[in-house]
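Dear colleague,

Following up on yesterday's call, I've attached the two folding results inline so they're easy to grep. Please treat them as preliminary; we haven't cross-checked anything against experimental data yet. The first protein's sequence and structure tokens come first.
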Amino acid sequence: MDEKRILINIGREFGSGGKQIAIKIGEKLGIKVYDNELISKAAEESGFSKELFERSDEKRSIWGISSFFGNMRFGSAQNYVGDNELFKIQSEVIRNIAGRESAIFVGRCSNYILRDMECLDVFITAPLEDRVRRVAERTGLDEDEARTRIERQDRTRSTYYNFFTFGNWGSAQDYDLCINSSLLGIEGTADYIIAFGKEAGLIF
């Protein structure tokens, strides 16, 4: 019998503290968080350069690959590599990780990619003004600039998620738990998610 794994997928609004919460959960449970690391793994396993994945990270776009193509393990180079090919490679990486170890995945439609596995799917939100303050403090932008960046980033994530999942980014029906991180803070939200997951039998 296969060893049971803890799999947590975290979607998040920009500036809600979602990545920090994921890291805190990972520390408390002793399991790895996959966010930017996932890009590196996708690049390594596909033979494409890391730069290609970074430039397409949670965005929809098509890139010329003449300067990006690596060891050609995925076949001979064509003129372009598009969204679907990159998404397929990244999905395979996510599924391979989930098949061998407990993990927390941040973004990248992981709740959809792992929809046939037993996972805890969480979406983290926060009031806009709280997110503006957090982004402004983190980046040094003024509040108007931070608000513009939040709107742009949320729109980009929404477009990416909706395109690949045929769903609606942030819709409660796609998650087991939607939580406002401003109510409990980073650590309190992490503790609440862990308690919820244990009660649901998805964290043990």
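Below is the second protein, in the same order (sequence, then structure):
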Amino acid sequence: MNVAHFSDTSSDSVNGPSKYLTFVLGDESYGIEITHVTEIVGMQKITPIPDAPHYVRGVINLRGKVIPVIDVRMRFGLSEREYNSRTCIIVLAVRGQDVGMIVDRVQEVHDIGDGVMQAPPTFGDGGSPPYVKGVAKVEDGVRILLDADRLLFQ
């Protein structure tokens, strides 16, 4: 099983670039602040939880610790996809709790400064999804940056 641990979660400065772990769902790239990421693990057996929201796949046993796991595709209303060798779980620490996010694949860590980050787009009703923190222009396209707290707990 592939496991990546993240122990250096400091950013360059309060106003400097922030580091985002980027990942893919379908054809789109997303980013989550690296300060929340504790590790990345391969897919493993998920025990379903009755009456949980549709996007909560269940819980995993990660080295003796029970961690809830959400499927980000399902959270975003995307079509289900069969898990494969590139599918993985990003484990986040948010609000003092570990939560796993199932993603299609992980890309890399990007330094995203204030100059490339923009407010999230608004739609016909003047709003945007509450878990979208902003968008970043990077050399090969755009990354949708997510707010981990809102993604997991709203």
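For the second protein, one point worth flagging: Residues 3-7+17-153 form a domain with the OB fold (Dihydrolipoamide Acetyltransferase, E2P) fold (CATH 2.40.50.180).

Best wishes,
A.L.
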